[in-house]
Each structure stands twice: as structure tokens, then as C-alpha cells.
Amino acid sequence: MASRALAHCMRSVARASARLNHGNVLTRSACAPLASDQRALSVLSCGQRTRWTDLVRISGPSVHLCRHYGDLPPLTLENIKERVMYVLKLYDKINPDKLQTSSHFMKDLGLDSLDQVEIIMAMEDEFGFEIPDAEAEKLMTPEEIVQYIADKKDVYE
Amino acid sequence: MAVSRLPPAALSFKQFLQRQKVLGIYRDLLRTIRKIPLESNRRYLRDWAREEFKRNKSETDQDVIRMMITQANNHLEDLRKSLSLAGC
């Protein structure tokens, strides 16, 4: 009997939260612990319902869908450029002050081909996909790297 | 006159191929080192590889380079075998 009442309270809370607030992860995660606690008192859960809907109502207008379903946030040209420059700044052989998107690794920054291989490896690690040898050796400026990654990842702008 | 930082011009065809081979081996080595589980071991081997390649960077004798390429390949094979034996 108590468990049926509990289940009913749970379902109405879930329905209320779903109606008011489609994407709010907060309420969903708030629902989850209660779902796992089978022994909770029905009185307690029904009492909490009003408090939750209040909470839900307050945060209603600022909700937006933010579910990624395990995917990464979408790439933009700006984002790619930032990440590329960040990785380059971390590289110990590059002087971060002299670094620009158009600086040539060998001509402007004084690196050699072994360093360039290391840099492209670091980019592979950062973006999570492999760059074949033939194309890797042609990438000589940060701008080219950004263009290449945008090509491979289908980022249009 | 501006100082040119271009890599030495006019490598012969064989030298060009050798250069590509060396870079390919360096890349394969780095890729294999990536699979090593412990970060400290990874770093040590990366530094070792870097040192080895940098030290011999200015070698010009083709036969010596060929010998070093063979050595590097042997190291790479050893590393791969150890990794597969260790189950990575």
C-alpha cells in the first residue's frame, strides 16, 4: 500500500517536472535518488513534491536543452583555433609571445621537422583523431592546422 | 639581407627519401610510446627518443644514417613486442 502511494507521488512529481522543465538536469537528478530509495516514507515524498515544483518553477525560464548524450560539444572554428594555440603555447620549445596563427614553425619559430612531428602528435592527442603522415608533414603554420582540422571535422562557417 | 631559416635546399632524391623515412620512424615511435600505460615511463621514453634523434640530426653520411634507421627500427620492434607481451 505504502509503496503504491509512494510510486504515485513519484510519478506525479516526475510529470510535473517534465511539464514545467524539459531539460533541467537538476530536477532529474533530484528525482533519481528518491527513485532508488524504496523505503522512503510516502508522506515525506509527497511533502517534498511541493518544494520541488517551487524549485522547478523558479528555474523554468532559464532552461535550455543541454543534453549531449555522451557526445562532445560541437566544434567551431574559433574553438579549434583556441585549442590549437593553447596546445602550442604549452609546447616547451615555442616562445608564447612570438606565437601567432600565421607563424611558420620552421621559418618564424625556428623549429625543425622533428619538432613539427611532435606538434602534430600533440594535435592528434588534443582532437582525438589520427592525421596521416603525408598530410601531417605539410602543416607548417597554426592556421593550416586549424584549416585541416576544420576540413576533417566538417566545421563550416 | 634577411637571414634565411629555410631547411637546407636541394636534398638529393635519395636524401629526401631518407629524411621522410626518418620522420616516419620518429612518428611511429611516438605513436607506439603513446600506448605505454604509465605516464612516467611514457615521458622517459619520449625524452629518450627525442634525445636520440636530435643527437644524430646533423649526420650526413648516408650509410651511417641507414645504420641508424635500422637501429631505430629494431628499437621500435622491441617496443612493440614488449607492449604486446604486456597485453596493451
TrEMBL record, chain A:
Subcellular location: Mitochondrion
Main location: mitochondrion
Residue ranges of the TM segments: none
UniProtKB keywords: Electron transport, Fatty acid biosynthesis, Fatty acid metabolism, Lipid biosynthesis, Lipid metabolism, Mitochondrion, Phosphopantetheine, Phosphoprotein, Respiratory chain, Transit peptide, Transport
Gene Ontology, cellular component aspect: mitochondrial membrane; respiratory chain complex I
Domain called Carrier: residue spans: 78-153
MF (Gene Ontology): acyl binding; acyl carrier activity
Gene3D superfamilies tied to this protein: ACP-like
SUPFAM superfamilies according to UniProt: ACP-like
InterPro entries: ACP (IPR003231), ACP-like_sf (IPR036736), PP-bd_ACP (IPR009081), Ppantetheine_attach_site (IPR006162)
The UniProt record lists the keyword Lipid biosynthesis: yes
Recorded family membership: Belongs to the acyl carrier protein (ACP) family.
Summary of the function given for this chain in its UniProt record: Carrier of the growing fatty acid chain in fatty acid biosynthesis.
Protein name: Acyl carrier protein
Organism: Culter alburnus (Topmouth culter)
UniProtKB/TrEMBL annotation, chain B:
Name by which UniProt lists this protein: LYR motif-containing protein 2
Complex 1 LYR protein domain location: 20-77
Gene Ontology CC terms: mitochondrion
Keyword entries, A-Z: Mitochondrion, Transit peptide
Protease is among the record's keywords: no
Family: Belongs to the complex I LYR family.
Superkingdom, taxonomy of origin: Eukaryota
Subcellular location: Mitochondrion
Organism in which the protein naturally occurs: Culter alburnus
Pfam families tied to this protein: Complex1_LYR
Job description of the protein: Involved in efficient integration of the N-module into mitochondrial respiratory chain complex I.
